[in-house]
Amino acid sequence: MNLNTEHYARCIRTLEMSLSQLEKAEPESIEYEVFRNAVVKGFELTLETAGKLLRKALKAYSGRPKEIDALTYKDALRHAAKHDLVSTEEVERWFAYRDNRNSTAHDYGVGFAEDTLKLMPGFVNDARRLESILRERLGNGEA
Fold this sequence. Notes:
The chain is mainly alpha-helical and 143 residues long. It has a single domain (6-138), classed as Nucleotidyltransferases  domain 2 (Four Helix Bundle (Hemerythrin (Met), subunit A), Up-down Bundle), CATH 1.20.120.330. Helix content is 78%, strand content 0%. It contains six helices and no strands. The chain has helices at 6-24, 30-58, 65-69, 73-82, 88-106, 110-138. The radius of gyration is 16 Å and the shape is elongated.
């Protein structure tokens, strides 16, 4: 299988850049709000892209692609752990990321955005690790 992780890697880099710009902004400024919103949207995009890539990756381990397509996000993560694409500890963190994303999708309040920001250091590390594993095992070897 030749899984292309370039878009996912770019999503991660974009999220990292948004975080970097957020850290430079004054907390009460409009720039802070702009970059906070960019981080939240970047998080959502990176998370969704990870799920799509995981489903594609899991097809390399299954003879039933339609069953893989029908997996929920969390079930795809469970299957990924079975194939050592993520650890069980990482699965639990990815569940928390997904739960947070589901909350932000329904409430864009400042509280949810700030909760999302607290997850970012761990999320970025987990996202990078997943991209690396998928690229090395199933990808084209470039990021």
